[in-house]
UniProtKB/TrEMBL annotation:
Keyword Signal appears in the UniProt entry: yes
Coiled coil: none
Pfam families: DUF4142 (PF13628)
Keywords on record: Signal
Span of the signal peptide: 1-18
Name of the protein described by the UniProt record: Membrane protein
Taxonomic superkingdom: Bacteria
Domain spans labelled DUF4142: 27-160
Length: 163
């Protein structure tokens, strides 16, 4: 190994060690943001069809409204950036979460919904925070930054739920 490649390797290792994140590709952000919103809407509609808990129903209705809005915001920012995102698709993990939620019944479904929402919102928060700080499309970065406090509010609400 020559000096130059040794320095480059050491620098790469120190950057990785320091936790400096590489920029999230715009295509990845669009895919993750779209899939996250789609999951939220599907899971919430499923729970709305069966839950007897007024708090769960109120939260699920808010998820459908808020995630429909964030989908519109991201799509609009993408178009402003000259991009035409594909329709969102659930990831394999999200498909499994929907299947598990479908199989659960009654209060077990409500409890699973809240648990899944905590996980999904943490992933959404990381996605939007990452793109807001490392993205390369200004309109999408601004949109991601606007979505972050909404997701944080959802997490606060979930953490105060009794389940």
């Amino acid at each position: 190994m020559n000096l130059r490649s040794g320095i480059t390797a050491a620098l790469a290792a120190s950057v990785a060690f320091a936790g400096v994140a590489a920029a999230m590709p715009t295509s990845e952000y669009l895919m993750k943001a779209g899939a996250g919103d789609l999951y939220e809407k599907k899971a919430s509609a499923l729970v709305l069809s069966s839950s007897k808990d007024a708090g769960i129903k109120k939260f699920a209705n808010m998820m459908i409204t808020d995630h429909t809005k964030s989908t519109t915001m991201v799509k609009s920012a993408a178009m402003k950036s000259g991009l035409h995102p594909k329709p969102p698709m659930l990831s394999p993990d999200q498909k499994k979460m929907i299947a598990d939620l479908t199989a659960a019944k009654g209060k077990d479904r409500d409890a699973l919904y809240v648990s899944q929402q905590k996980t999904a919102h943490q992933m959404a928060l990381e996605t939007h925070q990452d793109y807001a700080s490392t993205g390369d499309k200004p309109a999408l970065k601004e949109t991601a930054a606007k979505i972050v406090p909404v997701v944080q509010e959802h997490i606060s609400m979930l953490n105060s739920m009794p389940m």
